[in-house]
Amino acid sequence: MSLIDWGSIRDVKSLMASLESFIIRVFGEDYIKDQFSKLKAKPKSVPERLQYVVEPNVHRVAGWWNIIQSFKEHGYSFDLRFSANVEEFMDLMLFSYAFNLLLGSKVVAIDDSRVLGRLKNRDNFSSLVYETLIASNYVSNGFHVEVPDLVSTVDSKPDIFAKKGDLEVYGECKSLERNERYSEIAVELGSWLYDNKVNCILDITLPHTPRREDRDYVRKIIELARRAAEEGKTVEGDGVKVLFQKLPELMHNPPPLSASHPEDIEYVLS
User: Fold this and answer.
1) Model's pTM, two decimal places?
2) What local confidence, expressed as pLDDT, does residue 270 receive?
3) Side by side, which strands form the sheet with 235-237?
4) Closest Cα partner for 245 from 259, 260, 257?
């Protein structure tokens, strides 16, 4: 079952009609109207440039619906002064394509109450979007894909299971939002590892969450992680502990990972 026939889309108008129909069929018209009314009820003092920033008590789909309606009202064109509109529209397109692919491949079903419950969970929807993109990437590469976390009511299930021949993948999806306090560490350290072709796992344990204003502390964390990668060993300092584990150039069998407190792991960057 697919909700969008991408081959039938010939222009921007038909694209908008397809996306509008997709949102209605996935979330339900009543739910969209309810969320949209909450979005429109925001205080009038909100600056125009923030008109599509969805409040915490409003589902993100309300912002997507608002963008589509605004797009239609303005003759199917964007006001590029509002770059957030463009970015959100891109996310809508990616999610629509990815989720439609999962539906067409029977990885998920639109009438599954567990899936519907996850879709309408406004607090975790951004995480669900990311999981959907990763799962669809495996589908498009010929893998048999399951999404245990999405269709199960049992905790501690992996987000994605993918199998192709003898290869099995168990995926736990994590994404860093741009305002996430760990973003600077992850991005800068990841770039350094890539530039220097360092193939390893770094497990970083912090005594407390880095504060945005504490630049020196963030720099110390990054420098300790670099030292661990360069020296190939565990490094500690100022309460920060960085465990080092080298990875082979080609992984035939994933090496065992050991974590003293796995429940405290927030991100694994590889």
Assistant:
1) 0.67
2) 37
3) 200-205, 240-246, 235-237
4) 257
> Given CA atoms 74, 75, 77, 80 in this order, what sign does their dihedral have?
negative
Question: End-to-end alpha-carbon separation of the chain, Å?
Answer: 35
- C-alpha–C-alpha distance, residues 247 and 260, integer Å: 20
Determine the Cα–Cα distance for residues 14 and 61; give it in Å rounded to an integer: 20
Distance CA 69, CA 63 (A): 10
Q: Would you report the helix, strand and coil content of the chain in percent, each value rounded to 5?
A: 50, 10, 40
Polymer length in residues for the chain? 270
* C-alpha–C-alpha distance, residues 56 and 82, integer Å: 20
Phi, psi (degrees; rounded to nearest 5) at 144: -80, 125
Strand ranges inside the chain, DSSP E: 144-146, 160-164, 167-171, 200-205, 235-237, 240-246
The pLDDT of residue 104 is: 92
- Helix or strand or coil: residue 144? strand
Q: Report CA-CA distances (Å) from 78 to 12, 68, 113.
A: 12, 10, 36
| Token pair listed for 256 | 């065992």
Cα separation, 86 vs 84, in Å, equals 5
pLDDT at 36: 87
The residues near 123 (Cβ < 8 Å, ≥ 6 apart) are: 56
Which stretches in the chain have pLDDT values below 70? 1, 42-56, 78-83, 152-156, 174-181, 212-213, 248-270
Half-sphere exposure at residue 90, Cβ-oriented, CA atoms within 13 angstroms: 5
- The tens digit of pLDDT for each residue in 105-148 reads 999 998 888 888 889 988 888 888 889 999 999 999 999 999 98
